[in-house]
Amino acid sequence: MAGCGDLGTEAGLRFAAAGHRVVGWRRSPGKLPAAIEGVAADLSSSELPAVPTDTTAVVVAIAADSPTEDAYRSAYVDGLAHVLDAVLASGATVRRVLFVSSTAVYGDAGGGWIDERTTPEPGGFSGRIIREAEELLYRRLSGTGITPVVLRLGGIYGPGRTRLIDQVRGGTAVFPATSRFTNRIHRDDAAAAIVHLCTMDAVPGPVYIGVDNEPAELGDVLGFLAAELGLPQPASESADASGAASPSGGTSPSGGEPSRGGNKRASNALLRSTGFEFQYPSFREGYRAILAGVGVRHP
Predict the structure, then answer these.
(1) 24: β partners
(2) Domains of the chain in sequence order
(3) Would you tell me how many other CB atoms lie within 10 Å of the CB of residue 78?
(4) Paired strand residues for 99
(5) I want to staple 280 with a disulfide (CB 3.0 to 4.6 A). Which of 147, 221, 261, 285 is the partner?
């Protein structure tokens, strides 16, 4: 597990529960559960630990330190390159390298459907740099006998990832003035998908979209959460004369970078065709579990 934060830790625990030896690389390995062998590693450095020779799968689950272009490049492109250097120099029996990517590589689809056959058209630097990392993975592993797998995840929510719940509770949530489809996946399902693609008998394809079964209008999700919490429905966003919503939801809180989500409906049909089943098939089951206190937030 190259990058063992919340998602990587959950996937690592699931690998361990299935009987695998799991080694987790992170800057602060002492925070990892005992089931994962923690090793100190800074993926931004070219000096990484040796990959154990009996390694059969490598999962690269990287997160940028800040929402800036430099931080994204350092994490996703440079970090992945350093991991691949270590893998290829190790002589380990690696069969698959799975890179955790994002549906941000698709940009905005105007509410239309996208799947693995859709040409990526990133709308901002985050999607563009993550797409560059995907291409690096395919290029570096070509001809090595190692299968590259890209898992493009939608918005991850779950224990400790409660932004929409917090907005509804805090009274800052706003219904969008125009249609806006969102795509998400519960952290536990994202971790289970990682394990599934790394261990399934059939050779996985080059790319899968990891989202739940139901792309949902943001307003529907906010309304559902308000009802579950017994709170008033959020106020509606106003629209100016040109039809544009105000305030705009198109930039990140840091400014500049367009929203990674865009307006699209992502299909998970290819992932489900491999036999993968979701514990939380829609936002309803997932958010109800969070509100009921189900699950653990990992360090």
Answers:
(1) 38
(2) 6-160+182-218+261-284 (3.40.50.720)
(3) 18
(4) 60, 150
(5) 285
d(CA 217, CA 181): 4
pTM: 0.92
Could you say which DSSP state residue 1 is in? Answer: -
Largest CA distance in the chain: 63
Place of tokens 């219904």: 175
Q: Which run of H or E residues covers position 147?
A: strand 147-153
pLDDT digits (tens, 9 = 90+) for 25-47: 999 999 999 999 999 999 999 99
> Could you identify the residue written with the tokens 């002492």?
30
Nearest to 131 by CA among 26, 207, 44, 48: 207
> Who contacts 240 (Cβ-Cβ below 8 Å, separation ≥6)?
246
Q: For residue 113, is it left (φ>0), alpha (ψ between -120 and 50) or beta?
A: beta
**Residue with tokens 């990140």, as numbered in its chain:** 252
Q: Which two tokens stand for residue 1?
A: 């597990």
- Find the angle CA(168)-CA(172)-CA(178) to the nearest 5 degrees: 90
- Region of 203 please: left (phi>0), alpha (psi -120 to 50) or beta: beta
Residue 76 structure tokens: 């996703």
Mean pLDDT of the chain: 91
- Closest residue by Cα to residue 14 from 1, 27, 29: 1
Determine which helix (DSSP H) or strand (DSSP E) holds 57, and give its type and residue range.
Answer: strand 57-60
For tokens 């029996």, what's the residue? 93
CA distance 97 to 223: 39
**Residues 250, 257: Cα–Cα separation, whole Å:** 8
- Gap between the Cα atoms of 276 and 73, Å rounded: 31
- Helix, strand, coil percent values for the chain (each to nearest 5): 35, 20, 45
Q: Is residue 77 classed as helix, strand or coil in its secondary structure?
A: helix
Measured CA to CA, the distance from residue 233 to residue 224 in angstroms comes to: 9
Per-residue model confidence as pLDDT tens digits over 149-173:
999 999 999 999 999 999 999 999 9
